[in-house]
Amino acid sequence: MTSFEFTITEHLINELRKKHQAILMADQGMIVNTATDTNLPKQNVQRRKLTRSKSIIQQIFHSKEGDDPKLKNVRQTEILVDLKDSVLQICRYFISCDEKMEMNISTKADYSPESHAHDIDNFLAGRREGHKRARALLDFARQDEDELGFRKNDLITIICEKDEH
Questions:
Q1: C-alpha 31: how far from its chain's center?
Q2: Most confident among 55-59, 64-68, 93-97, 144-148 (mean pLDDT)
Q3: For residues 33 and 39, is the Cβ–Cβ distance under 8 A?
Q4: What is the pTM of this model?
Q5: Where are the alpha helices (DSSP H) in 5-155?
Q6: pLDDT tens digits, residue range 35-53?
Q7: What is the DSSP letter of 125?
Q8: Residues 157, 132: contact at Cβ < 8 Å?
Q9: DSSP state of 145
Q10: Are the beta carbons of 133 and 154 closer than 8 angstroms?
Q11: Which of 31, 46, 74, 134 has its CA 20 to 30 A from that of 82?
């Protein structure tokens, strides 16, 4: 009989953890770099810097804020990509926290003017349904049996705002 104590090492566990993390993140459409240990919770965005070659006089007297339409277009595109990634991360978070939300959340963006006409109505309908949530900023250990305890960044669904005390 062989013993498992020599076959299972810390290195093997880390490699398998990275492999399975990559599979999970690829299923969710996230970019994964398995060479690093810090894939979560933040992802770093590499930004390109486009500059045109300038003469010495232009470099001295020209402002850093370029009026180049190409640079402006790149900046606007990067802002939209960042916005879309942020919205997708929020959607994924709420889907993972509450399975009922998976049917209600649409991850497809609609930039048409017609969709914006219903924004206020959709917001007010959501407020009336009572799906108020809060994120815990700090750990709170309960001291009595009837108190709620939670950890930092836990998502708390507010059912009733009446205080009995």
A1: 12
A2: 144-148
A3: yes
A4: 0.40
A5: 10-27, 56-61, 69-97, 101-104, 113-117, 119-129
A6: 555 544 445 555 566 566 6
A7: H
A8: yes
A9: T
A10: no
A11: 134
